[in-house]
Amino acid sequence: METETDNSINFLDISIQNERNKLSINIYRKPTATDVIIPKDSCHPPKHKHATIRYLLNVMNSYSLNEDNKKAKYNVIEQILTSNGCETSIVKQFNKPAHKENANNNKGSWAKFTYFRRETKFITKLFKETQIRISYKANNTTKKRLALKP
After folding, report:
1. Which of 142, 137, 144 is nearest to 47 (CA)?
2. Are β-strands 22-27 and 109-114 bridged in parallel, bridged antiparallel, or unpaired?
3. Shortest CA distance to 58 belongs to which of 80, 32, 31, 27?
4. CA-CA to 119 of 20 to 30 Å: which in 9, 20, 25, 149?
5. What is the spatial distance between Cα 87 and Cα 81, in angstroms, rounded to a whole number?
6. Left (φ > 0), alpha (ψ -120 to 50) or beta: where does 21 sit?
7. Cβ 45 vs Cβ 138: under 8 Å
8. C-alpha dist (Å) from residue 103 to 13, 99, 106, 107
9. DSSP structure class, residue 68
10. Where exactly are the structural domains of the chain?
11. What percentage of the chain's residues is helix, strand, coil (to nearest 5)?
12. β 3-4/8-10 pair status
């Protein structure tokens, strides 16, 4: 979807503005959905919670934002984390360049575990030195939350 105003063009998630014959790129987020992420106290695997942070940082780092826009987006990410009970220091951990895994690694097979807090993580660490890769799923679905209890 594309909309156009006087000096700017808005796409789905970016806004391009012409300021004194210089293009300025910015990221657009709906104000109603800005703070919506998995809260810290939710019973979801940490990898699911961290995926949102990685996504927000990847979007911020994917576009050629000027320093002011980049700093503003970084502050928005920290504000989202604060609103959901998370520590803002985690942003620095995920905002580092990712190192690629060795392409020669054998992919192995996958095992799926329902996540029940830290106990699940303890059990799945036993598979770390094997060819079995671990995937987590959450058990607290909306359907289960809304179901009537007898």
Report:
1. 137
2. unpaired
3. 27
4. 149
5. 7
6. left
7. yes
8. 32, 12, 8, 9
9. H
10. 3-94, 109-141
11. 35, 20, 45
12. antiparallel
By three-state DSSP, how is residue 125 classified?
A: helix
> Could you list the mean pLDDT of each consecutive 10-residue stretch along the chain, which spans 150 residues?
51 71 73 74 85 86 83 87 85 71 59 78 78 80 69
**Radius of gyration of the CA atoms of the chain, in A:** 20
How many helices (H) and strands (E) in the chain?
5, 6
Name the nearest CA neighbour of 22 among 3, 7, 6. Answer: 7
Task: Name the residue among 104, 149, 136 with its Cα closest to residue 38.
Answer: 136
Amino acid (one-letter) located at 46:
P
- Predicted TM-score of the model (pTM): 0.54
Is the separation of the CB atoms in 91 and 60 below 8 Å? no
**Do 39 and 85 meet the contact criterion of CB atoms below 8 Å apart?**
yes
Please tell me the predicted confidence (pLDDT) of residue 8.
57
- Report pLDDT for 104: 47
pLDDT at 58: 87
